[in-house]
Design a protein that fits this description.
389 residues
Length: 389
């Protein structure tokens, strides 16, 4: 077995296994979670409260994971343990109906997943394979997971769905074990220096970027919950909601596959303004268009593109603002602020949706995204490091 493992280590097929099933697991759990919870009889306020636990629990867990990974160099082992825990918590999530129990278990599941994501993204930019040819399998996995989740929720019990979430998380563990540790630390500065977190506070450009992402990613994170609910309010079936999410995810394929052609060519500021503009158009379409087909078209064309650009821009800007050996910690700090933004948006959006309808939520997102875009005009980021080449 040891000989077989050594032969498979670093093979492209192992990265395919990791990215497809990692994103399949994340998507099958989160893409229609809001539909599942409202199907249990939870109000929009209760649903938002439960979903917000993902970001609340992520506040301490994600940055601690980043620090631990950077200082020990054991990225794969730490993430494998977290994926096993996620699988167990996902199965437990299917066993309860109490709001507080759902809140805690959802927080545990998603904080484990959120903690894994910075390393998986860093892994895609640090090895012998180009970012696009690795992350493209995450796109396929996410699309397949969204469609599978919608069909399973429509035709079977939650048990079947969350068992699938746990199983695919364990398959992703097998993929992780076949990859190699991220190497930028050794290439550019030595493994895991003990640099205090206060060093991040001395970079005003990084602090401004955190404020910008508080607004932009906070809205983007809450959009994952409210986009499916908007479709359901327009009379779209749960299975069809999954199909919309499936095709919207596939729309990001050219973006990821050809990321090496444009992500390093343009500045982080220009890319962030572009992503903000796409997100703003998306939210305005959701808020103002009265026809289900028009909302579906906007969702297919814009939803995944905006969220994927935000995710890739995090990699680019952090690598150009932070010392290379602290990349994982820097990404984890950004994701922590993103979680804080999502907590605020989720808990504001729930009562707003109950009081004024789900479309009012997207008007709020439009205003806050415009504010984030305005702040981006003051952001200065170098474009000296190649990340996606």
């Amino acid at each position: 077995m040891g000989t077989v493992a050594r032969r498979l280590r670093g093979r492209y097929s192992m990265y395919v296994l990791l990215y497809f099933f990692l994103y399949f697991s994340m998507s099958s759990y989160s893409s229609v979670l809001s539909v599942y919870l409202t199907g249990l009889g939870k109000t929009a306020t209760e649903m938002s409260f439960i979903v917000s636990s993902a970001n609340l629990f992520s506040l301490p867990i994600v940055p601690l994971t980043g620090i631990l990974c950077d200082r020990t160099g054991r990225h794969r082992l730490i993430n494998c343990i977290q994926l096993v825990l996620m699988a167990l918590f996902a199965v437990a999530f299917a066993c309860t109906r109490q709001v507080w129990a759902l809140f805690v278990l959802n927080g545990l599941v998603m904080s484990m997943m959120n903690a894994v994501m910075p390393v998986s993204e860093r892994l895609a930019t640090s090895g012998k394979f180009r970012y696009g040819v690795l992350r493209i399998w995450g796109t396929f996995g996410y699309a397949a997971g969204a469609q599978a989740a919608a069909l399973l929720i429509q035709h079977f019990s939650g048990w079947v769905l969350f068992a699938l979430v746990g199983l695919t998380a364990l398959v992703a563990v097998a993929g992780y074990l076949g990859t190699e540790e991220p190497l930028p630390d050794e290439k550019e500065g030595g493994p895991g220096p003990k640099v205090p977190l206060s060093s991040f506070l001395r970079e005003p450009r990084f602090l401004l970027y955190l404020v910008i992402m508080l607004f932009l990613y906070g809205c983007s994170g809450a959009n994952m919950s409210y986009a499916p609910l908007l479709l359901r309010s327009l009379g779209v079936s749960t299975g069809a909601v999954g199909s919309v999410l499936f095709f919207s995810t596939l729309a990001e394929i050219p973006l990821i596959l050809f990321s090496h052609r444009f992500m390093d060519r343009f500045s982080g500021k220009a890319l962030l303004l572009t992503a903000s503009g796409i997100a703003l158009i998306q939210y305005l379409c959701y808020a103002l268009l009265p026809w289900a087909w028009a909302v579906i078209l906007a969702m297919v064309l814009l939803k995944a593109i905006a969220s994927t650009l935000f995710m890739m821009i995090i990699l680019k800007i952090v690598r150009n603002l932070i010392r290379p050996e602290l990349t994982t910690t820097g990404i984890s700090i950004v994701n922590t602020v993103n979680s804080l933004g999502s907590i605020l948006m989720q808990n504001i959006s729930g009562p707003l949706a109950d009081a004024a309808g789900v479309r009012s939520v997207f008007l709020l997102f439009s205003g806050l995204t415009a504010l984030g875009a305005g702040l981006t005009l003051f952001l200065r980021v170098d474009n000296s490091r190649r990340v996606f080449g």
